[in-house]
Amino acid sequence: MKLNPYCLLVALVTHVSATAQFRFAPEKPQVGQTVSFTYTPQGTPLSADSTVEGRYVYYGAPNNIHLSRPTTATVVRQSATFVGQLYVPLKNASGIMLAFRNSKQPKRIDLNKGQLYAIPIYDANGDALPHAIAGQSSVFSRSHFMYELGSRPDPDRVVLLYNQELQQNPALYPMYWSDYLASQIKQKKPGYGPKVKLGIETYLASRPAPTTADLTAASQLYESMGDFPKANALREQMKTLDPAGSMVLKDRATAVRNETNWERKKTAYLAYQKEFPNSTYLPALTVMMTDGYFKNNDIKGLVTFVEQQPVSHTDVMMLNSMAFQLADERRSLPESEQLITRALSILKTQAKPANVTGNWETEKQNRQRQLMNTYARSLEQQGKYAEAYTAYQTVIQPDDIDNSDPRTNERYFLCALQANHATDARPVIEEAVQIGKATPRLKTVLRDWYAKQPGNTLAKADAYIADLEADIRADQRDELQQILINEPAPAFSMTDLKGRTISSASLKGKVIVLDFWATWCGPCIASFPAMQQAQMRFQSDPNVQFLFVNTREGGPVQRVHNFMSKHTYPFTVPLDGNQRVSRAYKVQGIPTKVVIDPKGRVRYRQIGYSGDPEATVNELSLVVEMLKEGK
């Protein structure tokens, strides 16, 4: 049926603003032609703008909505008018829709009062093509064009366009019925519910054999109106109609996912995999099962399972995390190596994952380094030091030590020592120490190795490390100088766990480190290994005293005794049961570290624990050294 010219005129007129003149030629463009248009923004938000551009989409039948990809149209200013051209594709397009905006300030935009500007396309007889009107509604309801432009579709406009198209081309109703009814739901005019439900029932009754697509659309319409019984009934009908259809696949996949018994879950997964090998739900289920094997500590089963899966069903970064955890914990080390070897093999041929943005080759190189780091760790923990050293060499980037990981640097040098390559690794490690990318252990190992070299002594090794760290420690000192405080230190006297009296008077002239803590405080306990390292640095210095003040315990003292007996930290633990000392020292939360200088002044106070032991040791040690020097 041909489109009534009067109806087309109505549709066109609604797209021509009374103030913003939009014209195009030829008057009735056809496919394969170039359309010239003029745009005069007088009376619009762009009336005073000189940097204007067009944004347009092609449109056609609803199943060709992929045409509606926003594209920029270049326009040229000619006095108060902008002119441009657009080419009409040879296939599938029934029209073009445009908006205009400031190219430098995209939020300044003319949407023709939400209707956009339309250019319908005609056939050789001068009749508008099918979808010339309703296709505009598809742009509003099926594409993201309006959202990209910072606006929302007008539901009344969408319904009006569908009405006009379907009045003139009722044969198109099967293509538009669900979109048309959905637009009425969004419009929410009084009485829309019964009207839409009648529309659904009428349409389904008119179909000799409703397809799964029909039933899916109908169930979604019912669901959007809150009629879940009818929506579920249609889904059950879909399962009967298509036993291998999407609804069945989804329900079966959900059943596998929700199974809590691990043995039954494995059985259900294998049955699903066998019955629906091409299901789109299978990759996600496979990843879930991979995680399940790991969480159930069936590591041998995990390796067997992973090696049986296709590349497309395997998450290499998940395998990397699992393999590293196994290696780091020194458990199932051969399996750790097998898992990471499998991940490396998959990465070589892996296509770009859907969740990866940006350049895949660059991301692939980053992942390769992460996987090789895990591979090296697995080899190292098995005592395969020569192989691990070679693997670490692919991870360590001498030109980018600034972005290196201190723990990786430490492992690299330890493997180099074991593989007799310490001299080769030395330049990289020296730079790591110089820029603060070395752990305390790495610096100790480097110092001890250096001391054993011909002609060296431990004193020379200490000077060697000090020289490497000179610049960064100077920078750190400057930074710390900015946060040091200067307050009088209140006098205190407490009894420790051994019954001894610990007082500020007896420690006069010393640097005193107070660590306020309680057995129930997780961050307090987490910081203890770092605090132990800091204390060990000064264990031979009679002018430095660490005190681990138990406060806010809220329970019997025996709990503190039990804790210290169990963990055997070499700490002096004074008891601040009444919180008198913690209040005097302005402790607002625990853990809190307070450092007192030899003159009896509070110079440093830090609340909380960052979780970085190296940073904690370095900062606290520097503070102590600076205060010893009278800084």
TrEMBL record:
One of its GO terms (molecular function) is oxidoreductase activity. Residues 483-629 form the Thioredoxin domain. It comes from the Bacteria. Pfam families: Redoxin (PF08534). Keywords: Signal. One of its GO terms (biological process) is response to stress. Residues 1-20 form the signal peptide. InterPro entries: Redoxin, Thioredoxin-like_sf, Thioredoxin_domain, Thioredoxin_ResA/DsbE_sf, TPR-like_helical_dom_sf. The keyword Plastid does not apply. This is Redoxin domain-containing protein.
